[in-house]
Write the structure tokens for this entry.
Amino acid sequence: MRLKDICGKIPSKLFEVLSSRKIDVLRPCQEKAIEAGLFNCKSMVVCSPTASGKTLVAELACIKNVLEGKGKAVYIVPLKALATEKYKEFKKDFPFLRCGLAIGDMDSKDNYLGKNDLIVVTAEKLDSLIRHKAEWIKEIFTIVVDETHLINDSSRGPTVEILITMLRNLLASYQLIALSATIGNPDVLAEWLDAELVEDNWRPVKLYSGTYLDGRLEFY
């Protein structure tokens, strides 16, 4: 699938950004996500290797839905450093959007975030915002959960699971995009989320397995 094939399916501003990145052919997981209903607001679990193009799947959903007036987007990440990195990327790549970053004091509503179209946030911070009944939460439509495999983590997992559950109960309608490179049971997660499962093994750099012993490397 080529970028030009989706020209009429996404807002022109989004298409212009993708064109400026010199994207010509979409990667396998991106094509599979589109065919699974990405542009029809289908929720989905996208499971593919690192650097295979999962982030673009999330961007397509977030930016398209915001520009079409469906509601705000939240991009949930596990670490403050990652949140800051993603925030800077969104600000640079999509200057026509109002982007916010929420990683600070847990004990506040931070209602100023409501002026933004897209908010990059850690799971713990969004959990706090929901519990403090931040007014703008009900305006969310697109939910992206990055590094979703952390739902199995003994420390962060419960927060992520409860957060997803609360959002699903609070929002009348939404599109949830769960991204992971390493989750072991994506079919179970997709069933729980009532989402389409998008799986692919393509990666930009081939991996080789082998053993190294006494200065000798042997690949399997």
